[in-house]
Amino acid sequence: MWIYPKVLGGWRSLYSTKDWQTGSLLIQFAGADQIEVAVGGNKPKEVKFQYRFKSRTWHHVAVVYSRGRRLVQLVVNDKVEEQADFQEAALLNMKPAWLGGWQGGLRWFAGDIDELRVWNTARSPRQIRATAGMELEGKEENLLAYYKFNEVKGKTATDSSPNGNVGYLCG
């Protein structure tokens, strides 16, 4: 996803799935200019990365989660910045999703988000780099959800993949 934070500080969610059930996913700015990834059912549940983002700058951000390898990576502008390991890793539950906020309007992200993609596989930095600056067809293998933000209708973002995953807009 591409992000342009206008304001950093506080709790600002980029992507979240419903409740805190096992497999729920939360990607947010946690308290300052750092991203935290939390997965319900994982040990540890939250991982806060040390990479510091700048406001008023576009960043290409990918969060790569591998249940099998029990790890999460933060990829910023095509470079793996950090990696963290889990003792236990849950299968992700990807629906429904809140974009730019947390479960119905809390922790709203003060900025812009573009081209948010959810994959059913842990992508390599090379794969991420190859498609970072281009619009996809939406039919790519292992693509679960693809929000271009070109077809926003009210409070929802259209999923341009064939899977029909509605993204609820917050903020």
Residue share in helix: under 10%
Lateral arrangement of strands in the main beta sheet: 5-4-3-2-9-14-13-12-11
Query: Mean pLDDT score, rounded?
Result: 91
Low-confidence stretches: none
What structural class results from the helix and strand content? Answer: mainly beta
Write out key terms for the chains shown.
globular, 4% helix, nine-stranded mixed β-sheet, mainly beta, five-stranded antiparallel β-sheet
Secondary structure layout:
Layout: E1 2-5, E2 10-17, E3 25-31, E4 35-39, E5 46-48, E6 59-66, E7 71-76, E8 79-85, E9 97-99, E10 111-114, E11 116-119, H1 125-131, E12 143-153, E13 156-159, E14 167-169
Parallel strand pairs: 9-14
Antiparallel strand pairs: 1-6, 1-10, 2-3, 2-9, 3-4, 4-5, 6-7, 7-8, 11-12, 12-13, 13-14
Overview of the molecule:
It is a single chain. The chain is mainly beta and 171 residues long. It has one helix at 125-131, and strands at residues 2-5, 10-17, 25-31, 35-39, 46-48, 59-66, 71-76, 79-85, 97-99, 111-114, 116-119, 143-153, 156-159, 167-169. The strands form two sheets. It has a nine-stranded mixed sheet, with no helix packed on it. Strands 8-7-6-1-10 form a five-stranded antiparallel sheet, with no helix packed on it. A hairpin with a 3-residue loop joins strand 3 and strand 4. The model has no long low-confidence stretch (mean pLDDT 91).
Nutshell version of this structure?
With 171 residues, this protein is mostly beta strands. The chain contains one helix and 14 strands. The chain has one helix at residues 125-131; strands at residues 2-5, 10-17, 25-31, 35-39, 46-48, 59-66, 71-76, 79-85, 97-99, 111-114, 116-119, 143-153, 156-159, 167-169.
